[in-house]
Amino acid sequence: MRRPRGRRRRRAWLLAMLLGWTGLAGALELTPEEAAGRRLYREGVGAGDTPVEARVGPAGTAMPASVLPCAGCHGRDGRGRPEGAVRPPEITWRRLTTGRPAYDAASLARALGEGLDPAGERLDPAMPRFVMGWRDLANLGAYLKRLEEDRDPGLHEAQLRLGTLLPSAGPLAAAGKTVGALLQAMLDELNQAGGIHGRRLELVIADPGPDRAAAEAALAGLLDGDVFALLAPLAPALEGRYGELLAPRGVPLVGPLPEADGEDGPLVFAPLPGLREQLFALAGFAAGESPPGESPALIAYPPEAARQAEALAARLRAHGWKRVRLFDYGAGQADGEAPLTADLEALFFLGAGEALLALGRALDEAGLAPRLYASARQAAGAALRLPPAFSGRLFLAYPLLPADVSPAGAQALETLRRRAGLDARQPALQIGAYSAALLLAEGLKRAGRDASRERLLRELENLHALHTGVTPPLGFGPGRRVGAAGAHIVGVDLAAGRFVPTGRYVRIEP
């Protein structure tokens, strides 16, 4: 005699708990029919050879269901995704069968095919009618009964697991240790307060290794494992590539990516501006200092920064520069023209500080002293060694200044440092990791007990004016994935050997 399926599942669950099993990605065990139903629900792809059709509008215009899968409106969790004036209802099996009127298998088939609810009332006109075979219909119904159990990886009844990439060897080992200690102290603090919605937060750390191949393998290991989201990874080899690597799994990432180009896609949320945003802030500041007009601007960059240089050139042209030249100082050419000319008004620099120093000396020897603009992260270490002619003519972009840190924020960070056994060295690194943890925690709180990756992304996107106490207010939106989208502009007084804030914070519009 076969044991009922429900009893078998309960017994398997109890055995897993006794063995300390925590689950792996996609650990929900689905029958072949339920798995086929999940694909139909999420992708609109049926199990048979005949495509499933969706018919929309009064005329019943037919299109592939893959264009309008159930999850597109109702969400992967079945709880509905409002789109404008349309409010798709929750379609978990529990809600369908306990609502008024209640659904059963037959009335669900009628709703899908004819657009009528169990009482015979017409459903919202935005709801497509689907043409599918009985096999696909049965598969979909079977999966809807499991939909609430089908949680994203890393999300468990009593715990939520987060992943990160932190080097344990090489030149970034000390930075990796600092970030790991700070993140763990932050999660410990949250857990002592009860976690988030009753779930204890756990951190899974993988070492990205010495190169891109190792970093990609380490990231793949995290994504194949049991993590819900990524928090503050430190893997420069992957910056600018996270979007494409995370997209197939839909895994969110919250963290500072200082060298990123700002185009990592909708899954990546950065509290502070990366290199691209800092350069754009400098472009806006420079345009305000003197009308560009016909005066030329030169962008000097190493070969690996060609993409950022092209983006900056487009931004400068949008600000009114008619003559923008690119100078790959690794190749030694600038659009076929000599890069250093007497009428050069502004030079935007990308690359290491020593290269800026060499370029500054070459300009000085040629009797030229254009305004220089660079990211502080790249150039601040060499700034004070430039020739005196550039005093008052060098401007650096800073994501943060001490004025951004409130007394309460400084105290909270210091308390966390003590818990983590850290001192005040590497403040920017610590603030980046700390603000990312605060941002992710806020998103998880707003996502609720029935969180999903999709819901977390939606809540993060809808965050506005989040005060961390250690950064400018953070805010996001459609197409905006940098929380503090702007930079402080700081001048350099070479005679006095000091940095002089201009008082300008330049915000970047999408």
UniProtKB/TrEMBL annotation:
Residues 160-482 form the Leucine-binding protein domain. The keyword Zinc-finger does not apply. InterPro entries: Cyt_c-like_dom_sf, Leu-bd, Peripla_BP_I. GO terms for molecular function: electron transfer activity; heme binding. It comes from the Bacteria. Residues 1-27 form the signal peptide. Belongs to the leucine-binding protein family. It comes from Azotobacter chroococcum. This is ABC transporter substrate-binding protein. Keywords: Signal.
